[in-house]
Amino acid sequence: MKRSILAALGLATSLAVPVAAEDIKVGLLLPFSGVYAALGTEIETGFNLGLAQYGAETDVTFEIVREDTEVKPPVALGKAKKLILQDKADVLVGVVSSGVLSALRDMVHGAGVPLIVANAGNDEATGAACSPYITRMSFSNGQVNRPMGAWMAQQGIKKVFTLAPDYAAGHQMIGGFVDSFTAAGGEVVGQEFTPFQKTQDFGPYLAQAKASGADAVYVFYAGGEAISFVKQYDSFGMKADLPLYGSGFLTSPLYVNAQGEAAEGIITALHYAPTIDSGPNAAFVGAFIEETGRMPSEFAVHGYDAAHALIEAVKTGATDRATLATALRQVRFEGPRGALSVDPATNNLIQPIYVYETVAGEGGLTQKILAQLPAEADPINGCEMAPVSN
Ligand code: PHB
């Protein structure tokens, strides 16, 4: 078995094989505890699968050092410092929360270490705070929500109430939606931002939404908060009168079965659904099911595509922080979600967005794709891309 595959399976450190000079050390920065713990584990599973699959295309060995960021910016900063200074990682992969990404930005940029973002959508990271060392293989918060504003207005929805957790991602996801919804003639009749990682009872917010005169509710929630929000929305008996829409993290395949019937009929938009009908997606879904026995989510794809991007960069001959950073910005490939390329103006991905409804299927809940919206690039958002300098 190739050494790169062994490394991907976590066996590198137990091998008696001497580490070759070209070996690459990957610092994996993910939440393995807290409200986004399941997301972190899913990204890691996708990353290891991608490394095992595409690693066969190179002889380079990847050594992985994993650290738990929790969902706490100061904790993540300490872990990133360790990976950069002590472990001397050649490349960092991960980060789930927008708050964590904005806390890490200056350290990563200052140290000149490439970071492949495998989730966090913080708009500034590929906008005003962009860096040639930060390449995003996931999405930006505005990017996944903007198309849904216009799409919902086209469906005849006129008045919306919005809800999201009170932190960067919540504000930016809702902001992207509201901009395009109001530009298309829609009206926002009320908004609330719920205390992040603290709200257990959404009742008071649901009562406000019900009394607002809205035609629909649009939300961003993810992880543990998405499970409790969707269940409470249903048990309040709101779904029939006030249809629920949102960004697709709300009904991620990662936890939609924990939501159960409460998730049926919710319509959301995202850059990935496991029901996308394409050859590369069928291959990915098959490999993921073989590995885990279940359907992959968008989080698994972020990890898988981050590994694919890393291998593509390595195949150009990149071996150290600077050459990896330069090569990562230029990757393009066909992945499970469609044709991907990195926008050189921002280092954010350009990718299609899918509108899907969660429906009952033969083996549980599934994603019925209602529309594929054209590939979305972010506006430059104040990004002035510096050159790689070391
Ligand atoms: C974020 O904080 O950027 C974030 C977290 C979870 C998601 C999406 C975005 O599912």
Describe the structure.
The strands form two sheets. Strands 6, 7, 8, 9, 10, 11, 12, 13 and 14 form a nine-stranded mixed beta sheet that branches. The protein has helices at 3-8, 37-54, 73-86, 98-111, 141-154, 168-183, 203-211, 223-235, 256-259, 279-292, 298-315, 321-328; strands at residues 24-30, 62-68, 91-94, 115-117, 134-136, 159-165, 187-194, 216-219, 244-247, 267-270, 332-335, 338-342, 349-361, 364-376. It is globular, with a radius of gyration of 20 Å. Mean pLDDT is 93; it is low at 1-21. The protein has twelve helices and 14 strands. It is an alpha/beta fold. Bound molecules: P-hydroxybenzoic acid (PHB). P-hydroxybenzoic acid (PHB) is lined by residues 36, 96-98, 119-122, 169, 222, 249.
Main attributes?
390 residues; alpha/beta; nine-stranded mixed β-sheet; five-stranded parallel β-sheet; globular; disordered N terminus; binds P-hydroxybenzoic acid
Write the layout of secondary structure elements.
Elements: H1 3-8, E1 24-30, H2 37-54, E2 62-68, H3 73-86, E3 91-94, H4 98-111, E4 115-117, E5 134-136, H5 141-154, E6 159-165, H6 168-183, E7 187-194, H7 203-211, E8 216-219, H8 223-235, E9 244-247, H9 256-259, E10 267-270, H10 279-292, H11 298-315, H12 321-328, E11 332-335, E12 338-342, E13 349-361, E14 364-376
Parallel strand pairs: 1-2, 1-3, 3-4, 4-5, 6-7, 6-8, 8-9, 9-10
Antiparallel strand pairs: 10-13, 11-12, 12-13, 13-14
